[in-house]
Specification:
The structure is a single chain. Helix content is 59%, strand content 0%. The longest helix has 22 residues, at 39-60. Helix 3 runs antiparallel to helix 6 and helix 5 packs across helix 6 (101-111). It has helices spanning 2-7, 17-33, 39-60, 74-79, 82-92, 101-111. It has a domain at 39-111. Keywords: Phosphoprotein, Protein phosphatase inhibitor. GO terms for molecular function: protein serine/threonine phosphatase inhibitor activity. InterPro entries: CPI-17, CPI-17_sf. This is Protein phosphatase 1 regulatory inhibitor subunit 14D.
Length: 123
Amino acid sequence: MASEASSQPRVMFHTSEKEKEDEECPRCTLVKLTVKYNRKDLQRRLDIEEWIEGQLHLLYDCEEDDIPQLEIDIDELLELPDTEQRSRLQDLLQECAKPKEEFINGLLYRMKGLRKMSVTLKK
């Protein structure tokens, strides 16, 4: 049987140099855009984002659609010193009538030790 398989004709496809370059280019792009994140850090960040969403429901005492458009950017906050993080959060939540110190303290506590997600390119 082995001799039968080797005697069968084989089909081979030849590509031009331009086609080879075009095929390799997307692969190069994919490699450069690949970012490695620690799964534990990603889960922690997701947990914080879900906590923020739940707390905003409590602070504004309304449905998700009724919450004002707030963009609490964790990476932006991580770039700021501690005192500026607090004042940035107070600015974002200025429309909230309820006391917000507990939310701010809770968020800053949860963010301790969290690292900014940076895009690192593979070479």
